[in-house]
Write a structure and sequence with these properties.
100 residues; alpha+beta; five-stranded antiparallel beta sheet; 5 strands; 24% helix; elongated
């Protein structure tokens, strides 16, 4: 049982290392701005798309740009941010799109 726990821990650790930057092993709460233009407060609409992940084994949701644009009822992207939060066993990824 102890060997299995060690293997699971190492797999989780390597999975964390190979994914997106600045993600904590035990806890994460970060926002990564992604520029498609200069970020200003002139964007009139905002939409979000969210994905959830449990244990790195099961993931559901739609955190793509198209889903966020559809939720915000927009046709043009000004800029977007990616927000990551969660604990070691549960992660939430939200794409926040700003546009017109």
């Amino acid at each position: 049982m102890k060997k299995i726990a060690i293997v699971v821990f190492l797999l989780m650790m390597f999975t964390q290392i190979s994914t997106v930057k600045a993600e904590g092993l035990l806890y994460t709460e970060s926002i990564f701005p992604v520029d498609t233009a200069q970020q200003t407060a002139n964007s009139s609409k905002m939409g979000e798309g969210t994905c959830y992940n449990v244990l790195g084994l099961v993931e559901w949701g739609n955190c793509g740009l198209q889903a966020a644009m559809k939720n915000g009822k927009m046709s043009q992207i000004h800029h977007y941010d990616i927000e990551k939060s969660g604990w070691i066993f549960f992660k939430k990824i939200t794409t926040q799109v700003y546009g017109y």
